[in-house]
């Protein structure tokens, strides 16, 4: 693997983790939302990754990552009995989003650490390339 290909691989991972962090932020922002006028509440979104070959031609030794899809969690939302709420249904229940804030915080920490690790990989590769150039000057 070329030193320059490290930037491609880590860059693809940084981009994918950035999209994951955006999905987590959206989920956390809508964790306590109730069903809208159409009767459906916000559904948690999950990012699905896929391997992306980075090599040219038949070179399959380098693989990065890309976001293949962003799916919506189809589990039913949390229902709370509150007949006084303006969004309550005929039975007096209010349907909230199906976002689990604890699970989303874990996803956020995981995505953030993955992002930071890939930035560190790129920084180390840059330092090694600079050292190699300095060795060639002497």
TrEMBL record:
InterPro entries for the chain: Flag_bb_rod_N, Flagellar_basal_body_rod_CS, Flg_bb/hook_C_dom, FlgC
Key word ATP-binding present: no
Stretches assigned to the Flagellar basal body rod protein N-terminal domain: 7-34
Keywords: Bacterial flagellum, Cell projection, Cilium, Flagellum
Pfam families: Flg_bb_rod, Flg_bbr_C
Main location: other
UniProt KW Glycoprotein keyword: no
Domain Flagellar basal-body/hook protein C-terminal: 91-135
Subcellular location: Bacterial flagellum basal body
Family of this protein: Belongs to the flagella basal body rod proteins family.
PANTHER family listed in its UniProt record: FLAGELLAR BASAL-BODY ROD PROTEIN FLGC, FLAGELLAR PROTEIN
Subunit structure and binding partners: The basal body constitutes a major portion of the flagellar organelle and consists of four rings (L,P,S, and M) mounted on a central rod. The rod consists of about 26 subunits of FlgG in the distal portion, and FlgB, FlgC and FlgF are thought to build up the proximal portion of the rod with about 6 subunits each.
NCBIfam families hit by this protein: FlgC
UniProt name for this protein: Flagellar basal-body rod protein FlgC
Originating organism: Pelomonas baiyunensis
Gene: flgC
């Amino acid at each position: 693997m070329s030193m320059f290909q490290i930037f491609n691989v880590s860059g693809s991972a940084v981009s994918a983790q950035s999209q994951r962090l955006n999905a987590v932020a959206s989920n956390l922002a809508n964790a306590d939302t109730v069903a809208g006028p159409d009767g459906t509440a916000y559904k948690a979104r999950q990012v699905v990754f896929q391997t992306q070959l980075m090599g040219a031609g038949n070179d399959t030794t380098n693989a990065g990552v890309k976001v293949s899809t962003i799916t919506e969690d189809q589990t039913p939302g949390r229902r709370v009995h509150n007949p006084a709420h303006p969004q309550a249904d005929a039975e007096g229940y209010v349907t909230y989003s199906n976002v689990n804030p604890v699970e989303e915080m874990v996803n956020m920490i995981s995505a953030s650490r993955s992002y930071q690790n890939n930035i560190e990989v790129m920084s180390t590769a840059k330092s090694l390339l600079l050292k190699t150039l300095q060795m060639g000057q002497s």
